[in-house]
Amino acid sequence: MDFIVAGFIKAIELLISGDSSTWTAVWATIKVSTGSMLLSIGTGLPCGFLLGYFDFKGKKHLRTILDTMLALPTVFIGLAVYAFISHQGPLGEMGLLFTLTGIAIGQTILAFPIVAAITASTIESIDHDLKLTLITLGAGKRHIIATCLWEVRYGILAGAVTAYGRVLTEVGISMMVGGNIKYHTRTITTAIALETNKGLFANGIALGLVLIMIAFIVNLSLSFLRKQ
Amino acid sequence: MTKKNPAYHLKDIQHYYGNTKVLDINDLKIVKGSITGLIGPNGSGKSTLLKLLAFARKPTRGHIFYKGRLELPFSPTVRSKVTLLTQKPYLLKRTIFENIAYGLKIRKDKKHLEGRVKKVLSTVGLDYQKFAHRKWHELSGGEAQRVAMAARLILKPEVLLLDEPIASVDTESAELIRKASLKARDNWGATLVIASHDLQWLYSISDKQLSIFKGNIFSTGMENIITGPFVKTDKKTLIKKLDDGQIITLKTPAPKTCTAIIRKKNISIDLEKQPGNSSLNQLSGHIVSMLLEKQTEYIMATISIHDLSLILRLSPDQISCLDLYPGKKVVLTFSSNNVEWI
Q1: ipTM score of the complex?
Q2: Residue B3 belongs to a domain
Q3: I want to staple B44 with a disulfide (CB 3.0 to 4.6 A). Which of A119, A200, B40, B312 is the partner?
Q4: Inter-chain contact A129–B88, Cβ cutoff 8 Å?
Q5: Least confident of A131-145, B91-105, B288-302
Q6: Per residue in B35-60, pLDDT tens?
Q7: B84:A143 CB<8 A
Q8: Measured between CB atoms, which of A135, A138, A151 is closest to B92?
Q9: What is the reported pTM?
Q10: Residue B193 pLDDT > 90, yes or no?
Q11: Are residue B120 and residue B160 in the same domain, yes or no?
Q12: How far apart, in Å, do the first and last CA atoms of chain B sit?
């Protein structure tokens, strides 16, 4: 028990003193998760909307595929992305292996089905009377879509937060695609795994604390937005 | 657009949900500036008809003319002139002010917005200071209905369609909705079509009543519907036995039909049974309600014959001559031949 308490105290010291290896991992995590979230929201939101709002042939099959993608293991995504961007892979020439961009691509694949599936479910749950109400108030297609999205904004935000939580805490993709290179592609989660293996619990706890803080700040901001 | 054109002209309209026909209207005209009451049981097609009139749904077959112009496909212009207050109004997840101003904002009509919202809120009996900045979930059922009504009235629509507007509101809200509806007609000549189960309220506001049953419109207002089961006594005759022992005899319908319509004009009222004619049905019952038709001053009397209710339209003279009042025992007479089947 003592080593946990000692590790906790040391973690606070590391964070306050601005330990470079700790803080580069923090910034790498923030950069890569922000990039992957922007990409997954940019693609997942419209796809989820189309899937939830319109009825078309093959919709059920698409939904099944999307729901299956929710269960994709991060190591499998890491492996697949690795295969594509490694020197032997079809995208090898782009030089994405062991870069933050490579990790962001993998994390986008991880977050996309979460954003799309939750958006689709949220759109499907819209009260049938909403569309009728909007039509009878004179709204055209553009206004109907915009208002429908605005009406379910909290549901969509919840989807984004869920996806962010998954992206922030994954290890498999960052480890396989990023390579856990110090000062370069090392993220909080890969650093925790490494430091713990080395027996440096304080560093691991320090990084874990930052991870929890980031998640807390994100949720607090969303809660504040909801109140507004 | 000439003045002669009615607000609506529905021609050969049929509407289906899957394979089920829910509306079948040969010809229906609704006069501009009129208030039309729509009466009918649940599932008779009232809401569907209102959705068609609101151009929110296209009929499976047939044509809808709006002010003489065939509307199909529905243009955004015509949609912006007509508005429908649904039975269960949906309030947007915003403040009351934003809910009421929504229709104007999408029309990019933002002049004197605050003043207009204030005015329309007072029309429906709500105080601006108290309600404008409340959230959508901070209202009672009656207040929500009035806010939804205000969101339509602020648009000053040419046509205001109301689907059960007082179904779940208190008497004060019902009266405010009635006054606001009349104001819409009187102030800017709006045409109103209102579906309601509350006949007393509906008769107090409407100029004309249409009844609807199984998607069929009866432009003569409420008519008497007798549903099965019937017993066949011979090739040409069906009977319906009431639980109190009285029997209704009706002539055989066309195949596969099971609902009889007895027009109120074909029913006579008396105080005692008359001897004679076997082709006449004579049924004893009690007057349960009397409603004044404000345009004509005729009385709509509902007579309960055990578990069956029949409606008659009586002149003031008939009422005074027979000294009719609710609770009085009467005898209704109609011919077994005067029956239509739907």
Answers
A1: 0.78
A2: no
A3: B40
A4: yes
A5: B288-302
A6: 999 998 888 999 999 999 999 999 99
A7: no
A8: A151
A9: 0.78
A10: yes
A11: yes
A12: 36
